[in-house]
Amino acid sequence: MKMIKGVLFVFAGLFFLITLISLLIPSRIVITRATTVHADSVNLFNEISDLKNWNHWHPVFKNDPAAIHFSPVTNQINSTAEWKALGKINRLIITEVKYPYVKIALQQAGQNDIENILSLLPVHEQGNLQVQWMSVTKLNWYPWEKFGGIFIEKMSGGGYESALSSLKDYIETH
Question: What sign for the dihedral angle of Cα 90, 96, 101, 103?
Fold first, then answer.
């Protein structure tokens, strides 16, 4: 009995220590990726602000465009795109459209919403714009979620880079 109490005490202490350490980890993860594109700002903004146009360049939308369901209007606030991946429904919702940026919420079943902001920023070279994709993930206070947040950038950063690269290729060739 004494042994069981000692083991339980050690596990409770470890859980408490891990919880305290997790409170030091930020509850907001921000991932930012950018690329420079040689394009007209109006055309480029139309590409990123209209969910239907994402079929041209976004890898998820290009892979299986028939599986994505769009709202009747796709370039205004509350416009949506919805698809199923790994047995879960994913939904993009435009929350704000204001040149030079678009805010889009990614909703996934069982997950916190991820806020995505696509912005156009001027650069010094004439005719070039920087497209910046910023993703903000808010984590709950749970220790396992906070420690998992350490790996979010590694897991999703490549997807943002791939999407921006594909956007650059599409815009510069069309």
Answer: negative
